[in-house]
Amino acid sequence: MTVDLQNEKSAKALPLLQLEHVSISPKKMPARLLVNDISFNIEAGKTTCVVGESGSGKSLTALSIMGLLSKQLQLNAGRVLFNDPEQGILDLTALDDERLRKLRGDKIAMIFQEPMTSLNPVLTVGYQIGESLTTHLGLKGAQLKNKIASLLEMVGIAPERANSYPDELSGGQRQRVMIAMSIACEPSLLIADEPTTALDVTVQAQILTLLDDLKTRMNMGMLFITHDFGVVADIADYVVVMFRGEIVESGPSAQVLANPQHPYTQALLSCVPDAEGKKELKPIDYAWLENNELQVLAAEAMNE
Amino acid sequence: MSEHILTARHLVKTYTQRSGRFGFGTTQVKALNDVSIDLRVGSTLAVVGESGSGKSTLARCLLQLQPLDSGEVLFLGRDLAKMHASELRDARKDLQMVFQDPFASLNPRMRVGEIVGEGLLIHGLGSAAEQQKNVMAMLKRVGLTEADMQKYPHEFSGGQRQRIGIARALVLHPKVVVCDEPVSALDVSIQAQILLLLKELQQEMALSYIFISHDLRVVRHIADDIVVMYHGEVVEQGKVADIYREPQHNYTRNLLAAIPGKKVANG
Question: B 89-128 residues with CB below 8 A of A?
């Protein structure tokens, strides 16, 4: 469904993706909000990081964009507006399955955390990379083969490895294959859900550099989900901090990291050890935080 | 010599791996290749390296949970492999381990009180009432309550389970604790709590830690000395502060360069 509020001209100026007041809850308990009224934008050619602890709703947010929420969950409210270069502004939450399926893997792609479990063990990696090229672009034969080879080269794997099976590759190579699959159709939005968490630190550094490089080269908007502030500092342009299903703070990453405003962001940052060993670790005092948050809310209510 | 509580000399451990088509061939993988380390009394020695570098094999071999091909592990100057079974059992009381995965390392059918008290029972330390009292005190010390003794592991969060794992190891008042990636599976906020708890307990109970980790930020925070492993060999060892300042080996340099968030650390 095309949202006709914006005409063709203004669509160009709009962000790539806008989340507007998105709320998610279990179907059986609509009052229990797992994600509560969140809004943020993703710009083309920029990386937006969503950080938070486990259970803060970061992965749900990503899945809701793709329309991949579990059947037990529902989107209570909100819109996800995707700025498609050809079709204009689309509300992803209102699209039918067929049109959403056409967008997935083509204009919007996703990389998952576990490169071990997200590849099919009985198919060659070349075949798996080729699948979306055949489905979305209709490539066949030599054309398909050449495209697969160039994609593998792009992510730093020898093109001959197209005939390898996933178990013949290392963890880092498998994640590179996942990346090759996701960028095959040159998506305008790439969603990466903790893509380096399962990898060694040296391999992580390589994969982050690769993603950052591809983002710039292909002018992709990237939504990067992580719990590691170190990773945020390395690749994010914007950062969104989530706590218990809500956004507590967001902004340019350099600004948020250097000068966090919300007590939760400050507390979370003080849990991260630094490489110099100068910083004193301070665990989060949740009780204090809750009190503090109540006071902040009270103060806001007074001002209104 | 006396300042080292645990010393390993020239440890070698080889695994045989099936290889080739249908696993008809075999290859030898050297998980430990002439590894020597020294743990100073009351200090923390970090072992770092990427997956497959032999960190966890080293941990298990140090505690005699796995037989060595050659080399010796000296605890307070005595070779663990040459001890009689009863002597080794006594020594095990002083050598404890905290595991990485708090979800897999606790028996789901045992109550927390039983899990933590099992070591006391096996080593026959004190009467039943005293054991009960010790377990309770230890659980309280790691931040759990008396009521938690009657609960099962699945009733706890990841961080709480790791606290149970720590209580289980420390209730015997060991001298050496091997921590195998104790905070890798935890959120950064919980990680900070557990690291601080480990540090406090080290002070209180005069513990020496071997701390296995792949996170160099965590290591910088908790360790005094460091051993860098690569493909089963020690490529560099020394004081943490020295090695972070001036890494000598190329692999160490790569590891340090790969730490995410340099911008934060410098900014």
Answer: none
Tokens at A231, concatenated: 């990773």
Q: How far apart are CA B112 and CA B152, in angstroms?
A: 6
Which of B193, B214, B261 has the CB atom closest to A234's CB atom? B261
- Count of structural domains within chain B: 1
3-state SS class at A175: helix
How many angstroms away from the CA of B206 is the closest CA of chain A?
21
> Following DSSP, what letter does each residue of B15-49 receive, concatenated?
EEEEESGGG-EEEEEEEEEEEEEEEETT-EEEEE-
What is the per-residue pLDDT for A113? 79
Within this chain, do residues A204 and A244 fall inside the same structural domain, yes or no? yes
Between A277 and A273, residue with greater pLDDT: A273
Is some CB atom of chain B closer than 8 A to the CB atom of A205? yes
What whole-number percentage of chain B has pLDDT above 70?
A: 96
Across the interface, do A231 and B261 touch by the CB < 8 Å criterion? yes
Same domain, residue pair A97 and A20: yes
Is residue A296 pLDDT above 80, yes or no? Answer: no
Shared domain check, A39 and A136: no
Q: With 60 as the cut, is the pLDDT of residue B246 above it?
A: yes
Question: What CATH number does residue B217 fall under?
Answer: 3.40.50.300
Q: Which domain holds residue B260?
A: 8-101+175-266
- Give the model confidence (pLDDT) of A79-126 as tens digits: 999 998 888 899 999 999 899 988 998 999 999 877 778 899 999 999
Domain that holds residue A180: 117-184
Q: What Rg value do the Cα atoms of chain A yield, rounded?
A: 20
In a domain, B95, yes or no: yes
Q: So what's the ipTM on this one?
A: 0.79
